[in-house]
Structures are given as structure tokens and as C-alpha cells.
Amino acid sequence: MYNHIKKFTAILLTVLSCTFAYPLNISAEADTNLNLPETVYADGSYGAYNKANEAIGVEPADAKLNIKAADFANQDAADVTVRDYVGKSDVLFWNSMEGSVTWNVDIPKTGLYEIFLNYCPIEGKGASIDLGIKLDGKYPFNEAESTTFCRTWKDDSGMKMDDQGNEYTPDVSEVFSWSSDCFRDVKGYYGNAPYSFYLTQGAHTLTLACNNESVALDEITFSNVEKAASYADVASEYEKKGYKNSNEEITYIQAETPYQKSDRNLRAQYDRNSPLTQPFDASHIRYNCIGANAWKYQSQWISWEIDVPEDGLYNLGARYRQETIKGFQSSRRLTIDGKLPFAEAESIGFAYTENWDLFLFGKNDEPYLFYLTQGKHILKLEVVMGDVSSIVESLQNVNDNLMKLYHRIVMLTSTSPDPYRNYSIAESIPDMISILEESERTLETENKSLETITGNKSISTTTIQTLLSQIKGIIETPDSLITSARLNSFTSNISSLSSWLLDLKYQPITIDYLILKAPDDKIPRYNANLFENIFSGVQNFIASFVQDYSTAGKDGNGENITIWLSVGRDQMQIIKNIVSDSFTPETGIHVDIKLVSASLIQAILANKGPDISIMTARTEPVNLAIRNALVDLSELDGFDEVKDRFIDTALVPYQFQGGCYGIPDSLTYNMMFYRTDIFAEMGLKCPQTWDELLELAPILQRNGMKIGLSDPTSTFATFLMQRGVAFYNEELTDTNLDTSEAYDAFKQWTDYYTLHNFPQVYNFYSLFRTGELPLGIATYNMYNTLKVAAPEIDGLWKMVPVPGTVREDGTINRTSSASGTASIIFKQTKKLDASWKFIKWWTSDNVQSRYALDMESTLGLSARQCPANIKTMESITWTKDQLSALKEQMFSINELPEIPGSYYVTRNIENAFNDTVVGGKNARESLSKWSKEITIELERKRNEFGLEG
Questions:
Q1: Helix 832-842, helix 845-859: angle, nearest 10
Q2: Closest by alpha carbon to 289, among 335, 317, 321, 260?
Q3: Model confidence pLDDT, tens digit, residues 639-678
Q4: Is the peptide bond before 698 cis (omega within 30 degrees of 0)?
Q5: Phi, psi of 694 (to 5 degrees)
Q6: DSSP string covering 474-486, please?
Q7: Contact 554, 583 (CB under 8 A)
Q8: How much is the pTM?
Q9: Is-contact 356 512, C-beta < 8 A?
């Protein structure tokens, strides 16, 4: 009871604090005419290219040129045909994710042109279409190498509801329709504006290179879009035409039900913090808003259909929350029916607010007027960076230059400089001072720009000020930098700038609803009062005793099976949705899914176990099977068909004494990651073998860099299996650690640390991001982390198979082990047939692909799955090169068996490693000592369970 009182008190205090924390409703849009200092652009960038064109007085050309995509001159390694597609005839059907196509073009006038594509996606993996553009055989600037063209998605139906009264989001499907878009700044550094290409009058060639996904092209257009008029001019036109204010009542457009969207990850969210959020339910899940962290990436857009009741002038607005980027606005580009209503709509700013706010689109507390005709219109909001776009680009350039300088410094001094050595760093790196002085000027310039935009000298500029202070000190006394502490501080300050820029690039907002209102109407109340907050808090409190959020509930009153899993509620709900949509309608079997953290063995002993457990740790199936707790799945009908969904050795960890007690549902294995920019700068090649990797080690170490290997057991297993020796003997009664090959593998492994000084403990993500570890081996879900959390090095690294050992025939043996999870059926089940149907359904190609897709759609790229199913792996939105590398490594996997006492094998291999590397003992003696301990324990375990051999 005391705990309940404490809980209620905490809720009440939270409600009261929210009630009295009134948001500051500052101007929705920063002044676009600010007197900002000149931005500094990197060499080769579009900013520098555009600046050079401005310097010679080049103007947009007053001309237009259309060419049919089907009339191409030639192609190189591109699978292209001319055919009919989605209502158009004679279009270029580019059905491959590679190659290039070239057109001859005759430019009518010298000047700047924007280049538009009339395109339609071809069914693929659902990723954005990525094209590069060359003029006369060359990329005119760096950003031209890759521009993405979005796909269009829609929700298939309204919100669905489970048997507990909780909503879940509808399925998402792609809309295949023709769109027109130009090559433009999709990353937001130049305000998301179209690129302007300089072309002289006469003959030129245009080449499009496909980097990812397939696309159909109808027309390519060279032109310049007429710039939108200012709001003042538009408002003056309203007056001249005699447009009148509407008198209609407020129309609410629920944001969680959009018309279309650019990203299938943009799904509805639910919020129970305010009882005024529409719709609201204190005890059940109601999806009542959209956006949040899923809607923060540049060029993402969401559109809504608005039914306008009569011709007239209206205000548009939104109930929103933007509690992420303090001191800054989160910006959106507003279009109505595909057009900017006026220039200021290029960047509508949503101010920071910790609570819900209602913002009428406008400037300086003056809402804009929008003239809308009666009928349906499409309103679209697209993520843009707004006024800070050029500042971010400039600071990113500083960040890159300083990080390169840091690499050069540690190449000279290492990360642990000798305090008694005079490095004469300024003389050894002649351009060091000029780089620092240029960085100092840029940092001061952009710091002033930020102060001008925000109107605050303290908000969010501490990171810049700290780095500036250190740079000034280094310029005055260069050798003061040469201590471990100051070098660490320098790289830490650079990393802080990089992280801060990442936060600034992201522009999240959450929208509850949009409103269309008559200008003379009052805005609706958007925050609850004290009593409403208290009442909803009490409802939430009571519901916490009634609602069971750890279960997704049963689907009906027919035959039911119970499934346990240990994941998050989001994952459980996704699985529940798929079950409700597919498995139950197909089979008539209903499913009760529960989140658990209990021990499976304890549940079995208490006779309270489930029928099935999915996503079970790989050590559990054999551990339970030797206790006679699981069903041997190999004896069930259809097992051979199920087995063919995976690589040959995928089921090995779940097999024991001729039986198979688990079906894999995930498979994770190692890949090698390397920084292509650093390797190119140093003239190095990516190693294919361990010998080549070892040759790189002294080169990188002399330059203050490291190589990282993966976890101990998998590394040792890789070296052993690449010598053609299995980890265990054929009877699976003992290891092969007493063989000469095992000793050679162990010696090779430990030598990396004793002789070659490889790091034993390190943060892969942090060091790879800074470039201090430009080569490392990690499980391939590290890709997710790097793509999401380190976008500043996007395009500067690759993921490739692990190094191998050269065979006698000259091929490379890349054999490695893996890890994963499995689905199992408990022997105590009384519904074996229904349980086996579920396992077969769950591990099938289509279901695993849908689960992987829905996970990524709901939780973002960080939730990209590592499926065991081969077809599912192929369906995920990897690029062609990435998929090729992943499959090459996947088919080189030789899974390690699980046997009674396996835990002791892992533990004692690490003990042998520590004795050798840390304790300095002889490698052969260490391995021999601990392999004997392993043999004793494995024999003891076999005797314990009465196993033969």
C-alpha cells in the first residue's frame, strides 16, 4: 500500500509540474533577411561550386529543354529497356541497381539550370532511389555523386484494435505513381534547395549513375522554377482580388492519419501526457499523433488531405511539441497542392516547447493568411534545416578539417606523446597553424551567426566556445598540445562539435492535429487545466493496476497457444499485428503472446511454461533438450522444408544426439569495417587475408591508429576453423584444443596482442568514428549504429567480409562462427500440431521479411534485423555491394555446436588468453592447462546427464 501511495504522489507531482510549466510561444519563423557573416565552404562542395558561379556573374538561364529518357545515347552495365509502365508509354525502365545511362543534350542558352526527373519507382526493397549526375563525364561537385529521390507510401487502413482495446498501427504500402523532382540538396546543407548546374550553349552529355534501387524515367527537364513571391506580395494580391475571410468553424485534421508520406518509418505515435491530445484514453493505447524522432531527417515529408468548406482566407496551424533542440526551431517546408504559397513557406519554424503548443503558421505572432478554394487540398510538411543549414555545413567542414589535422598530429606523436621529446609540431606540420587560424575564423563567424538567429549568446554555443578557446591556445603555443591529456581533450572537443552538429541536423517535432480556421476565430484550448491533469493522472494510476502491458492478449475463443519472448513491447506488438493479420486467419489458431524475463527452466519445473518460446538465446535449446524439456523438431512433418530456409550449418547449435530442438530466427556474424577515406589518404588497400591485415598493423600504429578484433571466442574459432579443424571432436565429447592446429591458431591469436600491440578493450563506435581505429571487426549490426549515430562519416566507410586464409588452390577461406536465436517447442505442450504450425509460419520467408520490414518501419534503421532466413536477408534494403558482402560471409559460416558444458569452454579459452596476454605465460602451456580443465568439466557434465561417450 505504501508503494501505491508513493506512486500516486509521484504522478500527482508530475501532473502539477506539467500544469504550471507554460510554454513560451516564440516566433514561428526566423528572419530570413538576417545580416549573417559569409559562410565558408569546403573545396569541391556544392557551396564552393555555387560561390564560384556567383563570382563570374552566372545567372539562371531563361530557357527550357525537355528530353525523353527513352532517347538515351548509350548505357554502361545498366539493365535498361524501353516499355510501358504505370500509365505511360515508351519510358526508360532501369531495372537494376547499378550502371549508368548517358544522353546527348543540346543546351539552348548559357546559364544555370535545375535538372528535373519525371520518375516512378520500380518495385524493390523500398529504399530511396539514389542517383549520381555527371555533366560531360564528370561530377560537377561532390554532392552530385549521390542524390536521393523518395518513394511514396500510404497507410492501408485506419487504426486497428486488439482484443484488449489497444490500437495498433495499420500496414504501410507503396504508392507507385509518377513524380517530378530535381537534383537537390537532400541533406539540408543548402536549405534543401535545387542544385543549379552551369552549362554553356551547345552540345553536352548528361550521365546518370544508379547507386541504389530501380527506377523508371519518362522525361528529363532542364529549366528554372519561378521563385515564389514574398508573403507581403501575396497578401497584397489577396487584397486586390477582394478575397474575404472565411467564417466557417474550425476543421481538425488528425495528424496520425496522413494522406501520404515519404518514409514508411513515419508511423503514428501515442501520447498519454495530456488529456487534450486527440483522441485520448487514460488506460488504453490510442495512436493520436505522428512524428517525434521518426520525423527528423532532412527531406522527409508527410502530407494530409484537407477538405475546405468554402472559398476564402484561412489560418493554418498545428498542435505540436518540440522538446528536443533547445534554443532552436525545428523547421518544415510547407506546400499546398505541391506549390509554395509564398517564399516564407520555405522554412516554417516550430519553436522549442516542453509542453504541447498550438502554433498558427506565421511570423512575429502574425499568422499567415492562406487563400483556399472549396474542396480537397493536399498540405505537405517537409523537414528542412532552415536558417542554420549553411552554418551546419560550414561547421561540418571545420570539424572534418580538425579531425584530419588530429590524425596528422597523432601520426607524428601517437596518442601518448613522449613528454621528454621535442616534436617541433608546427615545423613538422607546416600548414597546421593556417588550418587552425582558418578554423578559428569560421568558428567565430558561425558562432555570431547562431547568436543572431537565436537572439541568445548562451544557447547551444558552449561547444563552439570551448573548441575556440583550445584552438587559440594551440595557435599561441603549438607544442602545448603535445600531452596525452591535451590531445584527448582536443579530440573530445572535436567529437563534441560533431555530436552537437548531429543534434542540430535533426529536426524532430510531434504533431497531434492540424487546424484550418477562420482568421477571426479564437484558437482552441490546447493545454489541460489543473483539474483535467489530476483526473487523467488518477485514471492512469488506476489503469496501471488493471492493464497488463506485458501481454498482447489472445486473439479469440478458439484453440490458443501461448508464446513467450524476451524483447520490448514494440517488438511484441509488431509480432502480434502480424499474427492477427496472417497466422490466425489462415489457421484459425489464436495466440497469447507474453513478455517474460523468467527462467525457462524454472517455468518448466513449476509446470507453468508456454507452448513456444521464440527469439530464445542460442545456449538454451540444448540446455533444455538434455533435460528432456523440448520437442525434437526433426521428427515433425515438414522439417526438411523448413531446414532449407537457412544456410547448411544454421541449425547446428540447436542439434543434439541426432535431434534438432530449435529453428533459427536470427543469425548474427562478424564483418570487417574500414574507413575508406583514411585508407585512400594513406594509399592502403583493404586486407583480404590475415597476413595482409598484419602487414597494415605497423603502418597504422606508426600513424597513431589501431586495428580492432572481435570478441575472443569467435576470433579464436575463426583462426582454428580456417585451418580446417573443427572446434569439437566428431563425437562432440571434447574439444580439439590439444591439436597442433589449435596451438597454431591460439598462438596466432595471442600474438596480435603480445607482439603486435592490438587493443584488448576499446569502444569500436567511438574510435571508428574519430578515425583512431580505421579498421575493425564487429558483428554486422554495427552497421546500424554507424548509419544512425555517425552520419558525419556516411560514405566514408565500408562493410566487407572478414579476412581469410589462403587455401592451396589460391582461394580464400573466410570461415567464421556466428551467434543467433531460435524458436523452440516445449514438450509439456498439449498443442503440438498448432505449435509446429506456428514455428513453420514464423520462420517462413514472407513472415520474417514482414517482421524485419515492420521493425525498421516502426523503430527506424537502428532496429534493422539480422535474420537467419536467407530470403529475408535478401529482402532487406541493403545496397547491392552490401548484400553481396553479407551473403559471401554468411555462406562461409560454420556454426559451433552447443554441448553440455559449452559455457566452460568459452570461459576457459578466455582464461588461457588472459594467462598468455596479461600474465605473460607461454601460449602452449596456457592452452594445454585450460584445455585439460575443459575436458574434465565436459566429462563431468556428460556423466551428470547420463550421456554415452
A1: 60
A2: 321
A3: 999 999 999 999 999 999 999 999 999 999 999 999 999 9
A4: no
A5: -65, -30
A6: HHH-GGGG-SHHH
A7: no
A8: 0.82
A9: yes
